[in-house]
Write a structure and sequence with these properties.
264 residues; eight-stranded mixed sheet
């Protein structure tokens, strides 16, 4: 009897790609390609929007993408979902971020924006320096009339009125605290798990036929939804949501889990 086709969903940062230097283990590339050779389907499921997923990741070979925590879903060459936020609402939310004294990065499928009228916290500056080295163009929200975003992130500290901020976005955006003074905001109704559901609807597969790999709290719902949720080694905050904990990324965690479970 032929083995059932499974659908594998992979986060990027800390799962496939090291956050420190952007490296991708050869073992991860080879094992993901081996899955497709065996007839399984593979997908990226990331908080990054489409413009921020570069050729190095895409060249591994995937059957589709869940971008921006479920704000955009691609299957093959077909776009099956794109969640847009009204530009006027985006301006209102940007004002809320200013009032609450956080450092934002606004993300859209085709653009990213910062607000140069407010402070940039050190961890945000580290991220901007990485983007600068990659040549990523980031616009200032006050230099364009086309400002809008699909999702956004903030860096915060003791000077940020986080409680007020959360009240101001309640019912509009879901707040996901990533820890270490960093949080991610996604439109209510969007998530990595919802992106998976759209893929399943299109392919006719069941949730039981899915496997998800992740390393941070924005992967929690994805791991809970999947038939088998796998946390990367070292991602202790995600362990309670996982069915299986593999080795760390740098210790060939992707390949180890796939081989141990008999998938490749």
């Amino acid at each position: 009897m032929a083995k059932k086709r499974l659908l594998f969903f992979f986060d990027i940062d800390g799962t496939i790609q090291a956050e420190e230097d952007g490296s991708v283990p050869v073992s991860a590339i080879e094992s993901i390609r081996a899955l497709r050779e065996k007839g399984h389907m593979t997908f990226i499921n990331t908080g990054r929007t489409a413009m921020n997923v570069d050729g190095k990741i895409r060249s591994i070979g995937f059957d589709g993408y869940v971008f921006g925590c479920g704000t955009e879903v691609i299957l093959g060459s077909k776009k099956i979902l794109r969640k847009k936020t009204d530009p006027e609402l985006c301006r209102v939310l940007a004002s809320a971020v200013r009032v609450c004294n956080a450092s934002p990065l606004y993300e859209r499928s085709d653009a990213m924006f910062i607000d140069k009228d407010i402070r940039i916290l050190p961890k945000m500056q580290e991220m901007l320096d990485i983007y600068a080295k990659k040549g990523t163009h980031i616009q200032n929200i006050n230099d364009t009339d086309s400002f809008s975003f699909d999702k956004f992130v903030i860096w915060y500290d003791e000077k940020t009125d986080l409680n007020r901020f959360r009240r101001m976005i309640e019912g509009i955006f879901t707040y996901i605290d990533r820890g270490y003074g960093f949080a991610e905001m996604v439109p209510v109704g969007c998530s990595k798990a919802m992106g998976m559901k759209r893929i399943l609807t299109e392919t006719g597969a069941d949730a039981a036929d899915t496997v998800a790999f992740g390393d941070s709290l924005n992967d929690a719902e994805m791991l809970r939804f999947a038939g088998k949720g796998i946390a990367m080694g070292g991602a202790e905050q995600l362990y309670p949501y996982a069915d299986y904990v593999t080795r760390e990324l740098k210790n060939n965690g992707i390949a180890f889990a796939l081989k141990q479970n008999g998938w490749i």
